[in-house]
Amino acid sequence: MKLNILIVLCLFCSIAFGQDSKLVLAEKLFVALGTESQIEAMAHNMDAMQRRQLASVKNIPKEAKPFIEKKMSEMIQLLFSAIKKPEIRKRYIDSFASTYSEQELKDIVSFFESKAGRIYVKKSPQLQKNQFEIAQITVESIKPEKQRIWREIGSEIEKYSK
Hints:
elongated; 162 residues; single chain
């Protein structure tokens, strides 16, 4: 009986310790990746995209634009305050821990703490910005075809509405 209790206790401790070490590694990965600054860069990119979209809308009265810009700034501040909450950081760390095995975390952290990994992290925001711009150009290039398809969908819907 005592042996069974001891075995169960040892199993529980090894599982708990294993999970703790995974969380420690996941937090190291969170830091090594510069996740907080990447999240902030993503929020800045979203803000810039929204502002470009606002600027491209032609039927907004000039008098309304300052109010809309103020409200957009409120939204982006709301986003920034939300992403800085400790529970968001914990969710990212938990996500890393649940996605990767302990050995995978060790290997990934090792890479991102290396010179090549630090260069990758340092240049990632610019790379992501470039890729985001490529995606925007791609979406813009197919805009006429998308509009044509939506017109066709609208025409088809009208047939059934009569």
